[in-house]
Design goal:
alpha/beta, 3-stranded mixed β-sheet
Length: 387
């Protein structure tokens, strides 16, 4: 069997990447620091996924094992030395922490004389994730390792999309996922184009598809959460039963459509159908997704290149409307969750500094007109009845 090393044995790793790899008859070594999950993988070598739809069918993922990279880093290096593909689903902030291990694995492949090309795919909610990881890995490679990498190791960017709600089960490996999934990989940076996975879509230029996903799914999902929270909803399903929330999400997606069409030339009718599917996914009655999960880390989500501010900036550059996106961004400033450090930090900033200063600091915007627009929207949103 082909061998995969996958960093991140969380719900996305097991419930999405693991499923696709398993369907392609690839054995998977999960790398994580969660002892409970790693031990269960090594005891059973299989786990079950439930699909959140009528009948709730189950899928078994076989040929799996786990390595705790904190305890057994050399075992991870050895696994990489013999792998056919490397994938990640650990979160953008964690990618730098695994870079050295991947670099050592690449050096081990070189030392062993392994000339089988391999691709490393960062399956994260970010633009250019694999290329970001590549730059981190390079920091730990020798000159010989860098030359080997240039010839034999590809870092093609990837876009992934599957809703996996927060969940807790007695079985640490069991995971519930939505029926829909999309995994797109760019071919232009692949070093092993002969190894392609069924169920994965391959495109030469990935950027339009990454932006379509991030600006549609991530922006739309977050809009459901922050607007829902503003009006008192506790779950995404509950939020979208409120017409005010539903209309806000539809308005955001309409603005996103105009940006994607202007920037990438997507077909409007096809994009509209795609957005209808996205809303139906958010409304899946078999998924209970807490607003607090989707709305977590509000400061990060208000970032300059994140799901709200970036499309707002790019719409403004094209003289296209962005009122709904700006209104959602305003809702984010009112989001309160005492269990979320960034929410607490944001509220502290708002009580200690003038609003324009906070908006500038959090969003990193330099456009005075846009900052003023944001401040006005935040102040006007505060006057709306929330009940």
């Amino acid at each position: 069997m082909k061998q995969a090393v996958h960093f991140g044995a969380g719900n996305i790793g097991r419930g999405f990447i693991g499923e696709i790899l398993s369907k392609n008859h690839v054995a998977i070594t999960f790398v994580d620091v969660n002892d409970r999950v790693i031990d269960a993988l090594n005891q059973r070598h299989l786990y079950e996924i439930e699909i959140a739809q009528e009948g709730q069918p189950h899928i078994t993922v076989n040929h799996v094992r786990g390595i705790n990279n904190q305890k057994y880093p050399q075992a991870v290096v050895d696994a990489i030395a013999n792998a056919d593909i490397i994938t990640t689903a650990i979160g953008p902030n964690i990618l730098p922490l695994i870079a050295e291990l991947i670099a050592k694995g690449i050096e081990a492949r070189m030392t062993a004389g392994n000339t089988q090309a391999i691709d490393v795919l960062a399956c994260e909610n970010m633009i250019g994730g694999s290329q970001f990881l590549l730059e981190e890995v390079k920091k730990y490679l020798s000159e010989e390792g860098l030359a080997y990498l240039d010839t034999y190791v590809g870092f093609p960017n990837a876009a992934v999309d599957r809703i996996v709600p927060a969940q807790s089960h007695e079985d640490p490996l069991f995971v519930v996922v939505e029926p829909f999934n999309e995994w797109v990989v760019e071919t232009s940076r692949m070093k092993n184009p002969d190894f392609k996975l069924e169920g994965v879509h391959y495109e030469e230029n990935l950027e339009p598809f990454i932006e379509r996903k991030l600006f549609s799914v991530n922006s739309g999902h977050a809009t459901s959460a922050y607007t829902g929270a503003f009006y008192g909803a506790e779950t995404i399903l509950e939020a979208l039963k409120d017409e005010r929330v539903k209309e806000q999400v539809e308005g955001v997606l309409a603005e996103i459509r105009q940006l994607l069409i202007a920037k990438w030339g997507f077909d409007e009718a096809t994009l509209e159908d795609y957005h209808k599917v996205i809303i139906s996914r958010f409304e899946n009655p078999f998924i209970v997704d807490d607003v607090s999960r989707v709305a977590r880390t509000p400061i990060r989500k208000l970032g300059y290149d994140e799901r709200f501010i970036r499309p707002i900036r790019e719409l403004k550059e094209r003289d296209l409307p962005y009122d709904h996106l700006l209104k959602t961004a305003a809702f984010v400033f009112y989001y309160q969750d005492e269990n979320d450090d960034q929410s607490v930090q944001l509220q502290e900033l708002l009580t200690s500094k003038p609003l324009p200063e906070v908006v500038t600091e959090i969003t990193q915007l330099t456009d005075a007109e846009l900052i003023a627009d944001a401040v006005n929207m935040i102040e006007n949103v505060n006057k709306q009845p929330q009940l």
